[in-house]
Amino acid sequence: MTEKKYINFEASRGFPAGERIRYECEICGETLLSMPQNAAACKCRNIIVDADAGRISVKSPEKMKAYEVEAEN
Description:
Elements: E1 4-7, E2 21-25, E3 31-33, E4 40-41, E5 47-50, E6 55-58, E7 64-69
Antiparallel strand pairs: 1-7, 2-3, 2-7, 4-5, 5-6
């Protein structure tokens, strides 16, 4: 199992992003890549990642976590 390393951040200053960073919705429990190849959204649409524009929209930032996973060997 991949270990999650949660990242502390302030939503008002932007969201972390990278190949190993994931977004976790605390409302619906879904996890999204921070840099997907196509647009992505969690089931409840609290988190929406617009891959083409390189931006994220979060309705309730207090109900979202970001974490980093270990690099795969």
